[in-house]
Design brief:
- The protein is an alpha+beta fold and about 55 residues long.
- The protein starts with a helix and ends with a strand.
């Protein structure tokens, strides 16, 4: 499954995949998605689930 598909499946059609990167200091995979208003939301991928990063 691609990150684009994961974003649509877990967050809905109003979100668009922007970027994914590894945070090497703690081994997290971070994903950035943009909502319909253009706001960026940052997520951590944990066990296949997106968890919003504060």
């Amino acid at each position: 499954m691609s990150y684009r598909e994961m974003i649509k499946e877990q967050l809905g059609n109003g979100y668009t995949f922007t970027k994914a990167y590894n945070a090497f200091e703690n081994g997290e995979l971070r994903i950035i998605a943009e909502d319909e208003s253009g706001w960026e939301h940052r997520y951590i991928l944990i066990d296949g689930q997106l968890t919003e990063k504060p």
